[in-house]
Prior knowledge:
Layout: H1 2-14, H2 20-45, H3 62-67, E1 78-85, E2 94-100, E3 108-109, E4 114-115, H4 134-143, H5 147-159, E5 165-170, E6 182-183, E7 192-193, H6 194-197, E8 199-203, E9 220-221, E10 225-229, H7 234-243, E11 247-249, H8 253-260, E12 270-274, E13 277-278, E14 287-288, E15 291-292, E16 309-312, H9 336-342, E17 347-351, H10 357-373, H11 379-393, E18 425-429, E19 434-435
Bound molecules: zinc ion.
Amino acid sequence: xxxxxxxxxxxxxxxxxxxxxxxxxxxxxxxxxxxxxxxxxxxxxxxxxxxxxxxxxxxxxxxxxxxxxxxxxxxxxxxxxxxxxxxxxxxxxxxxxxxxxxxxxxxxxxxxxxxxxxxxxxxxxxxxxxxxxxxxxxxxxxxxxxxxxxxxxxxxxxxxxxxxxxxxxxxxxxxxxxxxxxxxxxxxxxxxxxxxxxxxxxxxxxxxxxxxxxxxxxxxxxxxxxxxxxxxxxxxxxxxxxxxxxxxxxxxxxxxxxxxxxxxxxxxxxxxxxxxxxxxxxxxxxxxxxxxxxxxxxxxxxxxxxxxxxxxxxxxxxxxxxxxxxxxxxxxxxxxxxxxxxxxxxxxxxxxxxxxxxxxxxxxxxxxxxxxxxxxxxxxxxxxxxxxxxxxxxxxxxxxxxxxxxxxxxxxxxxxxxxxxxxxxxxxxxxxxxxxxxxxx
Length: 441
Ligand SMILES: [Zn+2]
């Protein structure tokens, strides 16, 4: 629609027999008027009026999720980006993209497969257990090849400047750190990291949709907290006790899982876990504290009508993978984020890699304080703002860096926790989920 208007303006002007300077002035005025007319039309169409619906107990079937474009039902400003596996022409791991926002933003559909990023989960760590600074360079280099995606994202962001939210539905199992996708600068736009510039959430294809919740609805998590905090990490528990009226501590992760499997009339606002975590694609080596992933199958207390947020503040708790060795047709990814979403959690905040225990406390402290101060702000929006804040405050060299550069004479730790760690926190579920902290302003 917009392009036809542009063609019309150019056609009129180029046919006018005027001196070049007058013609240039007229062209720019015509273009300005055309832009104003487009802006007025967009305003009139009120594309952002569709608010997220509250939970009414209904859920769409998996078939509808997978096969149809939900653009006519998505809340204003929400886009879904599906990432599906397709080998490259060299038979290397690759993927294609399919994006939907509103009719005005138009769809994204790539035909030729892109290569998966040249990094594995293990590559994120150096020998001394720190995050590798190479990640940011690898991700920048890899992202720049995806011009179609970058253009589409800026187009959506331009249409919905105040409320654009991107749901990334990655079915590949490649562990792509999408929050570290590099949005290279188109004219008049600032370049930056996707997870700092845009609100990004993740979604996963459900194995069984009966207990799962919709990712486009508004949820509000209110009530007591259930927690498992490992020995030596009591500061996490003190933090919760200072913010919430009722906090129930389980002595082990297995006992917390048992507690979550007993239906109760009073819903939990938050399940909080701070402990050691481990992960491998074959699922058998994945666990949280003493709970193996295989035992994280049923949490009836999270089911409707409860609206509960899960915060897994543990290494690799947000990693999801596909067991390619054991299953010939690996349809579903496995991981704790999947297990909790499947059981009815309305949001899962977890860590995709390894973060030092001291830093996990700092992030929880910052995030919960921020949510208390900014009441009614969705968790996903708060996470984006905290990433942006940390990146801009880090004063790393060069400007885009998320970790201090030894080449620039900076030492790790000069600026506190490297901002990069905040991009290791990934959020699954509805971007509209709000955690109500008592006494918030
Ligand atoms: Zn749109």
